[in-house]
Structures are given as C-alpha cells and as structure tokens.
Amino acid sequence: MTTTLVADIGLLVTHDEERPERERAALVIDGGVVAWVGDARDAPAADRRVDAAGACVIPGFVDSHSHLVFAGDRADEFEARMAGRRYEAGGIRKTVRLTRDATDEQLLARATSLVAEMRAQGTTTVEIKSGYGLTVADEARALRLARTLTAETTFLGAHVVPAEFAHDRDAYVELVVGEMLAACAPSARWIDVFCETGAFTAEESRRILSAGAAAGLGLRVHAGQLGESDGVRLAVELGAASVDHCTFLSGADVDALAGSDTVATLLPGVEFSTRQPYPDARRLIDAGVTVALASDCNPGSSFTSSLPFCIAVAVRELGMTPAEALRAATLGGAAALRRDDVGHLRLGARADLIVLDAPGYVHLAYRPGVPLVRQVLSAG
Ligand SMILES: [Zn+2]
C-alpha cells in the first residue's frame, strides 16, 4: 500500500477533540486513511510526498444537500426574481418537464460535471436527491444515475405534487408511499420531503417519512424555507438525521432541535439566490444545535456548487465565525449524513483533504469568490 506524506502544513485543521487545529504540522495517509498526524519536524518518511508549502490544510467539504439530476436551467426565473418577482415552490415543475424529456446520458453528463465542479471547490462527499422525475420510472432512474456518483442518495418523490396530480394530491401521496418508494428504495439511502406551503403538508409528510422508514431509509426533511411550519418538529419527532433550510424557526422549533440528534442544515445559497432573509445560525449554535452548511445545488433556488461561497455568506450573513462555518461545512455535513469517517482528519478518518491557497481557513470568507482550493485529495 502506498503511503503519502502531506508535508510542511502551515495550519492543519483535524477537528480532533483535544486539539482541533495545529500549526507547522504534517499528516501521513496509508491505505486511504489518516495514519499519522504530528509536528512537521517529526514527519516520518513515505512513498509519496505532497508539499503544502506552509499553506492551510482542512478536511474535504461534506455537501449534505444537493439536487444534481436535472435537465435545463432556470436562468430566466432567476432574472425575473432579481427584477422583483418572488420565489415559489412551483418553479420546480418546469425542471420536472425538462428532466422527464432528457436521456439518461444527458442527465448523467450534467450530474457528473456538477460533481466535478464541486470537487474542484473542495467537496469530497456529496448527497444527491431525486425529485425532478415525479413518476415511478423517472424517480427510479434519477436515483440509479445518482448512485453511480455517490452512496448518499435520497429519494425525494415528495418534492412537489406534479401537474398531472394537481386535482388529486392524495393519489400522488399514495403513489409515493407505494409503487414509487418500492422502485426507488433499492438505490436510495435516504428519503426526504419538502414540507412547506405549496409542497406537502405536515400530515402528508408524516405519512411519507413513516413509509420511508419502514422501507429501511433514513429520514431528511426540507422545512422552514418560506415560513414557519410543523415540519421542523415533525423531523425531530421522527428522528430525522437532518432538517434543511431552517430559515424560519419558532422558539419551540429551536428547543426541539437543541434536545435532539437532528442536524439543522443551513443553505445560504438559497437566500442569496431568492433574496430572502437569511437563517440565524447564531441562535441555533448558541442553543446547542448541530449546524451543517450545504449548497442545495439545484437549478431553481440555488445554482451554486461552491461550499467556499456558502462559507463566505454564512460568515457575512448568518452570524457564524469562520471556524464555525468551516466546521458546519465539514463535520456538520458529516453529522447530517450520520457519517463518522468524513468531515474530519482524526486518525482513521478517510483521507479527504484540501490544500488551500492560503495560510488559514479564515481566507475562505475573507477572500470571497477567489478560487482558494489548490489541491484536493480524496481517500489519499
Ligand atoms: Zn433542496
């Protein structure tokens, strides 16, 4: 097995409990995992050497929320929104139409290029949702394609009620929990529901999530994007790994999250792109809630693949320190996916890491929009 020494690290972030950061460090990778961490001057020999040349090294980003299987884009909708039109969940239906009409090759080529775009910006673990097919065959296809790119696949048949069921939403929910779930579960690790006005009610969401759990899937929920809803407390009650958006939260929602293992995943690319108020990360962190940052990369409400961008916005607009934002985009994302092998560089972790073109991670927020990811190692 080839060993790799990452030498001359100016600042190394491991998220080790006792010593989360160390200066003038080195790290050795063996068999794709972190095998040694210590002072640069004590670094052992290895087969291969990556010279960090005094730069900062951080764990690879864990993007725990994205929608990458789709066709077309919605630049026109974005342009209209910037001219004053407000965001509505119904825009999803345009992407559904285009996605159903696309070939497997077209969908896979687009998703593959977005994953490559993410990786170039430091993302080494990504979750991908279905949700632009909304038929049994199209949802199953989206998950089959996503599975070729990541193990973290999420069935989101309950993204929006498709146009052909507009007058019989109960029949659509019936389809989602029945035939569609059965066809999708083999390619999915998670099930998700968009619990929001204009999408699915709390009662419908409960039914869909319970069916997913019975099929062996872990639970995720979209809630609190457009207003307060019962979705956050539902997610906590059902033991969801993550509730995503959390822009509008009541005091009871924050208390429920604080007493739970459910991660609050914040998606500031959405507020940026829909010109909505940002979530209050400070309030969540101060209450003891585990917070993740993710891109929500999708053609409607957040067409960014960049976690460095999300970190910069989180520091500027969500009340997070640079250290908290980095933690949320790495360890937080891992918690949202219930993974303990990624998001950190402790001994035994998957050797997913980023060599920054900067002396510290503060630069991710301090130098917004600047490509600071010099090199990405994935499992060594
Ligand atoms: Zn989403």
Folded structure, characterized:
The protein has 380 residues and is an alpha/beta fold. It has 2 domains: 3-60 and 343-377, Urease, subunit C, domain 1, CATH 2.30.40.10; 61-336, Alpha-Beta Barrel (TIM Barrel). The chain is 35% helix and 22% strand. It contains 13 helices and 15 strands. It has an 8-stranded parallel sheet with strand order 6-7-8-9-10-11-12-13. Helix 3 crosses helix 4, helix 4 runs parallel beside helix 5 (169-184) and helix 11 packs across helix 12 (322-336). 53% of the residues are buried. The mean pLDDT is 96. Bound molecules: zinc ion. Residues 65, 67, 222, 296, 298 line the site of zinc ion.
Note the main attributes of this structure:
22% strand, Urease, subunit C, domain 1, binds zinc ion, eight-stranded parallel β-sheet, seven-stranded mixed β-sheet, TIM Barrel, globular, 380 residues, alpha/beta
Question: What is the structure about, briefly put?
Answer:
By secondary structure, the chain is an alpha/beta fold. The protein has helices at 75-82, 92-101, 104-120, 136-147, 169-184, 202-214, 231-237, 251-258, 268-274, 281-286, 307-317, 322-336, 363-366; strands at residues 3-13, 21-30, 33-39, 48-51, 56-59, 61-63, 123-129, 152-158, 190-195, 218-223, 242-245, 263-266, 291-293, 353-356, 373-377.
